[in-house]
Design goal:
There is one protein chain. The protein is an alpha+beta fold. The protein folds into two domains: 3-32 and 67-225, sav2460 like domains (Lipoxygenase-1, Sandwich), CATH 2.60.60.30; 33-65, no CATH class. 15% of the residues lie in helices and 37% in strands. The chain is built from three helices and 15 strands. The strands form three sheets. The protein has a seven-stranded mixed beta sheet with strand order 1-13-12-3-10-9-8. Strands 2-15-14-11-6-7 form a six-stranded antiparallel beta sheet, covered by helices on one side. It has a two-stranded antiparallel ribbon with strand order 4-5. Strand 14 (188-197) and strand 15 form a beta hairpin. The chain starts with a strand and ends with a helix.
């Protein structure tokens, strides 16, 4: 069973058996923007899903279902706070395959299908023993510059093990940004950080919205505010 994290909540990422997790996969899912607007029905339950599906179909047919290009990135830092490297759509493989990006999704989902749009595999043992990385930050930015409060859903998940984009995976942790008013007007978010400890990789949910419009700007903010 997965754990739902709140902002600032810390937890050591462990398997259900209590053993430290060495390999992780980070996934993010999001949806396109329906410019026809939200229906006055809950998106939970059968009727809500049917109404939302019909609305999305109408928006798509009339050109009002808008693509959303979000970019999932893991930025790494050494013990002195120096940037070591980023795994992102423009650099899909880092540290000889210790961290690997699934590829760039430039559209988002027509509707919430429960699947991730982008994933990053993080070989924790290899990163811990073969690189100078002390901390890794999971960040998300809107390359297409839509605001986060416009996007129907954005969810982060941490999985136990290394999984491709279409693989079913055991979910360890979840972080749901939906309906969070603090993201109004934001185009980027520092989602969480991983810190190397003797017990394994410790995950801290951050959920910090920013107005930064590039990954480079977010990395600079992390160095000045979190390290």
């Amino acid at each position: 069973m997965s754990i739902n994290l709140s902002k600032g909540e810390k937890t050591v990422v462990k398997k259900s058996s209590g053993q430290a997790v060495t390999n992780l996969t980070v996934g993010v899912s999001w949806a396109k923007i329906n410019r026809l607007g939200n229906l006055p029905v809950s998106d939970k339950g059968f009727l809500g899903r049917m109404f939302n599906k019909a609305s999305n179909s109408a928006a798509k047919a009339t050109g009002q279902l808008e693509d959303v290009d979000l970019d999932l990135t893991i930025a790494t830092f050494d013990a002195s706070g120096n940037a070591v490297g980023e795994c992102a759509f423009y650099a899909k493989t880092l540290f000889d395959g210790a961290i690997v990006h699934s590829g760039d999704d430039r559209g988002g989902d027509d509707e919430d299908d429960g699947l991730d749009n982008e994933r990053i595999k993080f070989q924790g043992l290899k990163v811990a023993t073969q690189t100078s990385v002390q901390s890794a930050f999971i960040i998300l930015n809107s390359y297409s510059h839509q605001k986060f409060d416009e996007i129907p859903h954005i969810r982060l998940a941490i999985y136990d093990g290394l999984f491709g984009l279409t693989d079913k995976a055991p979910r360890l942790l979840e972080f749901d940004l939906k309906n969070d008013k603090s993201f109004n007007g934001a185009e980027a978010v520092i989602l969480a950080r991983l810190d190397k400890t003797d017990a394994g990789w410790e995950l801290t949910a951050i959920g910090q919205p920013t107005s930064d419009q590039s990954i480079r700007a977010i990395v600079s903010r992390i160095k000045s505010e979190h390290l």
